[in-house]
């Protein structure tokens, strides 16, 4: 069973909406499917997170549990953990073409409930694809906050907040808001100079003044309250001998992939940890 739609938003934005729990729960509710995620799930679903579904045709309302096994800028895949289904996989694939994204959602499963199950799934798939498209188009117009994933000798540069009080001691990547008339790449360069006192270049062969290419982006967009999205770009020190300084933060730390999970990240950065681990050193 397959559904597709053309969405007026970049693939990194559509991929983020696919992973946003409240959008998923709301869309499924509109199709009569009860969905619930754990309180420990962050702003976006990441591999290992589970979603509980209650289909209207399921006898005794026995829940179906699905687990996220893939979440990338190219789409998402969830598989059956337990429930009355014999098999169940849902996969969403994204292809960006000229600023628009082709979203293809495919459902593969076998249930013992006959035609009622198929009608319910078809309705749910239609509703979810439609809702994702609408939300993604809204997010595409949000203000942008950039972050820099600066890699040097296989290590990632992180910084520890000293204010505000609620966030003091937590970790994040360097970055900040894109100013009016400024590109994402130029914002990354400016923010790193202001926060670290060093010059950086965005990876991927993207010149200053550009928005950043597919090879410079790390992970998907991340929603920020009330009306912004966070976009991470991979960067490198222009002068490898230059030492970054914690101008606005408590301290800096270079970490390897195995150490990423040890840090007490700000919530917006935490959901990107699995993507940061996948970066090539």
TrEMBL record:
Its EC number is 3.6.1.55. It comes from the Bacteria. One of its GO terms (molecular function) is 8-oxo-7,8-dihydrodeoxyguanosine triphosphate pyrophosphatase activity. It catalyses: 8-oxo-dGTP + H2O = 8-oxo-dGMP + diphosphate + H(+). Keywords: DNA damage, DNA repair, DNA replication, Hydrolase, Magnesium, Metal-binding, Mutator protein. Residues 141-280 form the Nudix hydrolase domain. It is an enzyme of class 3 (hydrolase). It holds the Pfam family NUDIX. GO terms for biological process: DNA repair; DNA replication. The keyword Cytoplasm does not apply. InterPro entries: MutT-like, Nudix_hydrolase, NUDIX_hydrolase-like_dom_sf, NUDIX_hydrolase_dom. Its cofactor is Mg(2+). PANTHER family: 8-OXO-DGTP DIPHOSPHATASE, NUDIX HYDROLASE FAMILY PROTEIN. Belongs to the Nudix hydrolase family. This is 8-oxo-dGTP diphosphatase.
